[in-house]
């Protein structure tokens, strides 16, 4: 049962990235500073991330159908609050409700796949549902920009409220259930599973990379790339929306490639960690070149988008180290790191831009410096990932089992 989860994740990605295109309108109507805009938009990531640990336990205990259907109703309330809001506090509260509401859209799909499909198909299914999210990201670019003159940003969120309720009903009515043997586990036992994950050296090898690469991409694509195109590259709002469209389409192509080729690569003994590390190194180099002012800039952002999408395989690479009963908690705990990074970077980039402008730097200089800080942190995370992986092998304590990825 793929379609209901694909529709939900489509909406999740659309809502995640919607503020990027709407940022000039929101800034003008609400008189927001860069840090205000970053805080408002990143409220989604904060709420999403905070809810990941209880979400994992809920998915393992009650199953993806009931959990996601209920949470989508929270998202509907959030879009309604956002549509009606006139202050930054109310709008941030609405974004937070949206974050909680869509927090299960990917994790519930992955949990469902783990219950109903053989192991070797799950990487392809993950890529396919991520592709649905990529379509949502595309819809949050040029198509959303085209709707704003007609519906306005409030009208867009009123329409999304109705669509979300319909998808929640579809999930509840048509998705089947299957017990994986963990639904009777008590809360204390489930928390022990979470503690086991946090105590794992494998988890902490992946944690900085997850926080700073997927988190960084979400922070940029979800808000700051449009102000970058306008303020640094001198693009019009329409051109910036088109550039975001191209980036989203590129990310979608990467997700499709993962869906088509991941299963065959895994069967041939493909090492996802090495592949991810290489792809993210290319992503890092492309953003460094963009920060340095290399032109044309759009091809660099295209490469960044394509290579960043491979970070979805981090779930697969980590998932081999834990038993199936912990799967929901492993995925959501790793997801917690991604969204904690997205929240911190999305808000932090706005704070840094305001700070650099306040000390006399131009807006382009401020953006470049803020992005450079993020790139420096990403370099540390990349080095840590490979250093820890090499150390585990050298001391003869590998914890990963020679099994295919769990996604």
UniProtKB/TrEMBL annotation:
InterPro entries: MFS, MFS_dom, MFS_Efflux_Transporters, MFS_trans_sf
Superkingdom, taxonomy of origin: Bacteria
GO MF annotation: an example: transmembrane transporter activity
Domain Major facilitator superfamily (MFS) profile: 1-393
Topological category with respect to the lipid bilayer: Multi-pass membrane protein
Transmembrane feature ranges: 37-58, 70-91, 97-117, 124-144, 156-175, 206-230, 242-263, 275-294, 300-322, 334-361, 367-386
Location of this chain's protein in the cell: Cell membrane
Keyword presence, Lyase: no
PROSITE patterns: MFS
Main location (coarse class): membrane
Keywords from the UniProt entry: Cell membrane, Membrane, Transmembrane, Transmembrane helix
Gene Ontology cellular component list: plasma membrane
Entry protein name: Major facilitator superfamily (MFS) profile domain-containing protein
Source organism of this protein record: Candidatus Muproteobacteria bacterium RBG_16_60_9
